[in-house]
Design goal:
heterodimer, A: about 475 residues, alpha+beta, eight-stranded mixed β-sheet, six-stranded antiparallel β-sheet, 13 helices, about 30% helix, about 20% strand, B: about 120 residues, alpha/beta, 5 strands, about 45% helix
């Protein structure tokens, strides 16, 4: 490795991968839960068969086609799901959001103990490399990123090893007045050793903060993922909701649907109070293009609504998205058929059960869509006890671990729940939930990718299920 | 490893540079602390002494020269390597006058830097 060949650019060389640099120590010392390993090794045919046993109305052929789908834009993703139940005890995995630059490798126990690079290698070898090999452009290879250096150095080192060439690792920060990366004529260039601009043929992209401000559409540099994936819902919750709605209309006859909490799109600042009332006195407000837990407000009282309104921008150019809150405990006095509740973690010896989410990372391979990594995050305080003084509903329902300003090297706190021997059982999930969650993720990615095609390449003929 | 140098302080605002160099030196047997600003460096210097400080010349809050001066005032025995992208004679002279033991230009190859540390 050559450190700092130019400001915020490092040259990563073959042989630079060091496992201890790219996993949390706790993860390196963990063993994957056998059930999770079994899930990751299921063939897509097995997943299809099982999914159809679990969902008798699902059309087997449509499920098979979804699993075999080759996305045009959205080839690597991470879906956040929650395990919920209703008043009749019917459990589901609900989609909270789908990310186009998902973290997760550093939190995933290694599937095969002798495969040193784990999921980093699987993603680069089976998704990125085939794309690059088929993309005939001159130039070098790069990783561009604006957060999560622990994983991005890992990706750069893996790319260097697999391609046997040096990789430019460039921090492409939104606030950088003199960024070391630039697009010219739809081609990415990264600043080299002598200040020259180095042409890039393909780049692994982990740029999350308003990436559309500096990454172009129709990039001639191959990008995993391209910006179109973000614009079609991979980074905007409002657009994703539209994509899911289109999917559900299209696939209703096939017995397939993306399950999300009740969602109101295009809610103005003035309309937030009405949404609160319509949803029975609780809701989640989301700034559509926020991420990492920023810009998300859980509301369960008038005082929390007042607080959120004081923090939100009344003149925001884009309206808000409002979703039904997944509740902690049974809600009296509302239509029971509409409410969903967190199943929560298994109670600990003190009886505490916590809300948690599941990050399901997946990628498109020659064999179709495949699960790649998964982990869970739990909320700070239990679901089944009153909220203590000085805390609010975010402490009960918020599961995101990100802290603004986190540099990505920080050791994960106690709320990270690995899918390892010690932690996975505490989630109360089984193989069927993993399959259901994976299929929800597949459908979400399909929906967003099809939406991207509709927005950016409407003449492209895609597979249909009609 | 040099008998003289065990504890190293790295001060560099590029977090990847800082962490990768830190981890490289730890793997090679050194005890390393790191900071991304002069303020962070001063906080570490209050509670510990170091055999070697590797300082970036340009930091967001102060220059590496200011930290160098403070280190040499506190403990003249502490070796200091100043690293910079601006390797002109003027900066080199400024570093030398402030007491820098070595002056290294970016980019940095961690293996080459370690060889230099071993000779100090």
């Amino acid at each position: 490795m050559k450190l700092s060949i130019s400001p915020n650019v490092h040259l990563v060389e073959p042989g630079d991968f060091e496992a201890t640099d790219h996993w949390y120590p706790r993860v390196l010392n963990s063993s994957i839960h056998p059930l999770v390993a079994y899930f990751l090794n299921l063939s897509n045919h097995q997943i299809q068969e099982r999914y159809c046993r679990l969902n008798p109305r699902a059309d087997a052929e449509a499920v098979a086609k979804l699993l075999a789908y080759q996305p045009t834009y959205f080839r690597w993703s991470g879906t956040d799901l929650m395990h919920v139940t209703n008043h009749e005890g019917n459990r589901k995995l609900t989609v909270i959001e789908t990310n186009s630059c998902p973290s997760g490798q550093k939190s995933m126990p290694i599937l095969e103990m002798n495969a040193e690079k784990g999921g980093y290698k699987r993603l680069i070898e089976t998704t990125f490399k085939p794309m690059v090999d088929a993309h005939k452009e001159p130039g070098a290879l790069a990783v561009i990123y604006d957060k999560n250096p622990m994983e991005n150095v890992g990706y750069a080192a893996t790319i260097a090893d697999i391609f046997e060439e040096d990789v430019y690792l460039a921090k492409f920060d939104e606030r950088d007045g003199d960024p070391p990366a630039v697009f010219r004529n739809e081609k990415l260039y990264v600043k080299g050793t002598d200040g020259e601009w180095v042409e890039i043929r393909a780049a692994f992209r982990y740029v999350t903060q308003n990436p559309w401000n500096r990454i172009v559409k129709n990039s001639r540099t191959l990008l995993l993922n391209p910006i179109e994936a973000c614009l079609a819902g991979g980074r905007n919750k409002e657009v994703a909701s539209i994509a899911y709605e289109h999917f559900n209309k299209r696939f209703v006859e096939k017995g397939l649907s993306i399950f999300t909490p009740v969602t109101y799109r295009g809610v103005t600042y003035k309309g937030l109070e009405k949404s609160f009332a319509d949803l029975g006195g609780s809701m989640v407000i989301k700034v559509p293009d926020s991420n990492a837990g920023q810009g998300v407000y859980t509301i369960i009282s008038e005082s929390e609504l007042t607080q959120a309104l004081s923090e939100l921008d009344a003149e925001a150019p884009n309206p808000y998205i409002v979703q039904q809150l997944i509740a902690s405990n049974f809600i009296e006095g509302t239509d029971p058929s509409k409410n969903w509740y967190h199943v929560g973690t298994l109670p600990d010896t003190k009886g505490r059960s916590y809300a948690f989410d599941i990050r399901m990372m997946m990628h498109a391979t020659e064999d179709g869509m495949r699960p790649l990594a998964a982990y869970s995050r739990r909320a700070r305080i239990p679901l089944n006890q009153p909220i203590p003084d000085g805390m609010d509903s975010w402490d009960m329902y918020g599961t995101n671990l990100s802290i603004k300003g986190e540099d990505g090297w920080t050791y994960a706190d106690e709320r990270l729940m690995l899918f390892d021997v010690r932690n996975f059982g505490l989630l109360g999930l089984g193989l069927d939930e993993l399959i259901q969650g994976f299929m929800q993720s597949v459908m979400a990615v399909y929906a967003i990718d099809q939406h991207a095609i509709k927005l950016f390449e409407p003449t492209l003929i895609q597979m249909t299920h009609e | 490893m040099s008998d003289m140098i065990n504890n190293i302080l790295i001060v560099e605002d590029d977090v990847v540079f800082c962490k990768m160099l830190t981890r490289f030196l730890i793997k090679n047997g050194y005890s390393v602390s790191d900071a991304q600003s002069a303020k962070g460096a001063y906080s570490l210097l209050e509670g510990a002494s170091f055999d070697l400080a590797i300082l970036d010349y340009r930091l967001p809050d102060e220059s590496g020269i200011a930290i160098l001066k403070r280190i040499k005032t506190k403990d003249p025995e502490t070796k200091v390597i100043l690293i910079t992208r601006f390797s002109n004679d003027e900066v080199a002279e400024e570093a030398r006058q402030a007491g820098a033991d070595a002056f290294v230009s970016k980019p940095i190859d961690p293996k080459e830097l370690m060889l230099q540390i071993k000779t100090m």
